[in-house]
Amino acid sequence: MGLPPFGAFKPLCRTVGSYPICNLFFKQAPSALSVTDSRNLTAFENVAPVGINIECGIPRATDGHLGNIANVILCGLSLPLVLFLASRCSRRVAAVGRVELRALLLLYAITLPLQLITTGSFLKQSSTPLVILTAIHVGTVVALFWVLLANALVATQIVEDGTPSSLIPFYAVALALFVVTTYISLDTAFGFTSAFKPSNPPSNLTNVTLFVLTSVWPAFCVFAYFIIMTYVVLGMLQESRPLAYYIGAALLFVFSQLVYFLLSKVICKGTGAKVDGSFLATLLETASIGVLFAAWISITEDSWDNNDYYPT
């Protein structure tokens, strides 16, 4: 069997539990589902997990019981922690990139309740509210990675942070990415145009544009962020200790993705489809955000008494 074409979501939607992008394909490719007729499809939608012909997924409960409760709890616990870090940013009035980092934290905080809904068992599969919230979730995540990359660019002080010359492109690009990605996601799900029509064969669930935005773009942003911050710490500040924070944050993020994409099916089958790797991914991603905040603390000062960058 050959490899699926570039941009095909079929492998992810079959093997990765709680992969929210798969919610967008449920309406688009009913022929790709293992359901024999429309009556069975309607019944299947009420309990169908995230994914398309998923090998192990957490069913959407219809009897009032929550699915994937571990991820629900971790999203709930992560939200106040991230909001607390955002409030800490506001108090460091002289720190470089204060506004930009606060935007990163707040945007990540927004993704948490969206993740909770789009990967949990609150809404039935293919329902309009679920598709719309999934599109917003995907758009927010794509914008989040631009904000991450922009934080690194701000750290170089090519453009002074917190000024219109910094903030206007910062927010404009984030908004543009959010709008474009959200529209593409909605078009993929509802078929407003023929631009993102079902792939041939439909079972491949191919959407190259969406794949680039949700897989290639985040990987590029994370890599570029790490390279730029390594230059800032070693080249501009000539310090090595803060680099340990950035390496730690990068490792936590990589581990979160490995757990999510490689171990979700294993965890799902091992727990009888009660939980999957999403709760561990949420834990590691939030820890990565926390370490990034600590890294920022380590290279900035909170008052005007010293230099903006503070070599620790």
From TrEMBL:
An individual GO BP term: protein folding
One GO cellular component term noted in the UniProt record for this chain: endoplasmic reticulum membrane
Molecular function as annotated in GO: unfolded protein binding
PANTHER family with a match to the protein in the record: CHITIN SYNTHASE EXPORT CHAPERONE
Keyword Transmembrane helix applies: yes
Pfam families for this protein: Chs7 (PF12271)
Alphabetized InterPro entries for the sequence: Chs7
Domain of life: Eukaryota
Name of the protein described by the UniProt record: Chitin synthase export chaperone
Keywords assigned by UniProt, alphabetized: Membrane, Transmembrane, Transmembrane helix
Keyword Transferase appears in the UniProt entry: no
Chain ranges passing through the membrane: 69-87, 99-118, 130-155, 167-186, 206-234, 243-263, 278-299
